[in-house]
Design brief:
- The protein is an all-alpha fold.
- It has a domain of about 70 residues.
- The N and C termini lie far apart (about 95 Å).
- Helix content is about 85%, strand content about 0%.
- It has 2 helices and no strands.
Amino acid sequence: MADPDTAPEAPKTGIEGIIDAVADLLQTASDWVRQEAETVVREKVVKPIQRLGLTLVSASAAGCLLVVGLIFIAVGLFVLLGEWITYPGALLAIGGVYVLVSLVFIVIKVRMMQK
């Protein structure tokens, strides 16, 4: 003989059956909406943010490597100029180039602001 605690529950009839069916339907609809919302958030928010993060990390790494490379090039040019025109002359030449380049950037920026 089956234990009444483990026996499968018979479907309810009447108003209780309708209420249970509606409750099951609402639970199923709620689960479906939650799953769809999770999928939409994952596809529309999480993945683009992950791609943006990877892009920013890649760009930062590339920028850092570029700066390190430019520093090595600048040191090499400084040593080369130092041998050609003495080290104080090399410092003056490099400083003058930086001042001229900064002036060019300032002029470009002022013209862009005036437009």
